[in-house]
Amino acid sequence: MTAPLLPIAAIATAPGRGGIGVVRVSGPDVVSIARAVCGQTLKPRHATYLPFLDARGGVIDHGLALYFPAPHSYTGEEVLELQGHGGPVVMQMLLARCLEAGRDIGLRLAEPGEFTRRAFLNDKLDLAQAEAVADLIEASTEAAARSAARSMEGVFSQAIHTLVEKVIHLRMLVEATLDFPEEEIDFLEASDARGQLAAIRESLKGVLKQAKQGALLREGLSVVLAGQPNVGKSSLLNALAGAELAIVTPIAGTTRDRVRETIQIEGIPLHIIDTAGLREDAADEVERIGIERTWEAIGRADVVLHLVDATDYLENGLSEIDDAIDDRLSGHLPPGSPIVRVVNKIDTAPAASDTMFGGNRPHVVAANGPNPTEIWISARTGAGIDLMRRELLRIVGWQSGSEGTFLARERHLTALRCAQSHLDCAAERADQQAQALDLFAEELRLAQEHLNSITGEFTSDDLLGTIFTRFCIGK
């Protein structure tokens, strides 16, 4: 049996001044600290208003004290929470008093995420739920917060558990067949293994689709504005953000460095990055460095908006420079990141083209072969901006009204894709009949391991350390 961990303490509220601050203590024999600081034995799960006392009996503050006996607490251990006035000095004095009172039982300061890590180790939360706690705290949009709350309640975990149960059932049938080969039962036909596997793969496909939506809510999209100087990148940033964030002038090369702003579209955070104009003959060293940083930003982008001038584009098509930019973009982007050509300044396009292009009204030209999607807009007048917002979400696969979406992280997506890959291999083994039955079983086992890694059934200590050290102290 594992020995109980030493007690820990930390300020659980954010740094700075506030109306209320909380000091949290968790571990064995916390009741002795409560008696020392509160001067009395606390009734479990009842808020008691009282003075918090120093070692000489002087009053540090007045506030509420709550005691939660194990295992009915957040961490599964004894927990004491002291709620006082939220001044940083008062909170530090109260924390220091708790550490002093708990010196004999080994009380120490908590590490980042250690309270939630103990909740995980004591089976109060699985790993996906524990991560959702941090995601809820860090949520940047209302939609992300609601999805994180669903993950914390176990919606994501239940979807994974359901998949694992189905895989385990299929594995059980396979293992039984391998253990009794003399029965000469055609396992694949008698147990409808292919049908069961097909159902599992379809369920996993649905979970992965929801997880991708959740990852968009959590991470958002990195959208880089690229193109030659003076094509309206800064104007587009201002139009999307609804504020004058970037300097706009007719002078080419005004933007020398990246300008970043985060906006929301249907709850999805979009990190819009305006960059220095791309051209061969940089005016000076500062502009050259700016262009280098532009390519660095493009290399990390989820979507690149390649802006071109509508007048030039209508008269001459894609210029040699823009054609070269297109080619370099294709080789510079992460795999799967789309390029969208934005034809800007339609308000200044020649009147002669009105008939051909519908009076310069904003519109989208769907991708055709190697050609990217085109969106025709005017960043100056705002024409087509709403159209662009909708098109960005469509391109990345967002579906509005996803009330059942749960928040997901990149590691969850990786695990789901790995499980999907092993199930695909299992389907191939199934088509090879009985001689591949042991390989079929192995693919199922590997798929189950990847699914279990999401909820923490099979998780290395190194991964746990990485996950929980990113939490705030006190949580």
TrEMBL record:
Assembly and binders: Homodimer. Heterotetramer of two MnmE and two MnmG subunits.
Entry similarity comment: Belongs to the TRAFAC class TrmE-Era-EngA-EngB-Septin-like GTPase superfamily. TrmE GTPase family.
Domain of life: Bacteria
Cofactor field: K(+)
Entry's Gene Ontology BP terms: tRNA methylation; tRNA wobble uridine modification
EC top class named in words: hydrolase
The EC number(s) this enzyme carries: 3.6.-.-
Name recorded for this polypeptide: tRNA modification GTPase MnmE
Subcellular location: Cytoplasm
Annotated source species: Cupriavidus plantarum
Keywords from the named record: Cytoplasm, GTP-binding, Hydrolase, Magnesium, Metal-binding, Nucleotide-binding, Potassium, tRNA processing
Binding site for GTP: 230-235, 249-255, 274-277, 378-380
Annotated binding of (6S)-5-formyl-5,6,7,8-tetrahydrofolate, by residue: R24, E81, K124, K475
UniProt: Mg(2+) binding residues: S234, T255
Binding positions (K(+)): N230, T249, I251, T254
Cofactor note: Binds 1 potassium ion per subunit.
Occurrences of domain TrmE-type G (ranges): 220-397
GO cellular component: cytosol
Record-level Gene Ontology MF annotations: GTP binding; GTPase activity; metal ion binding
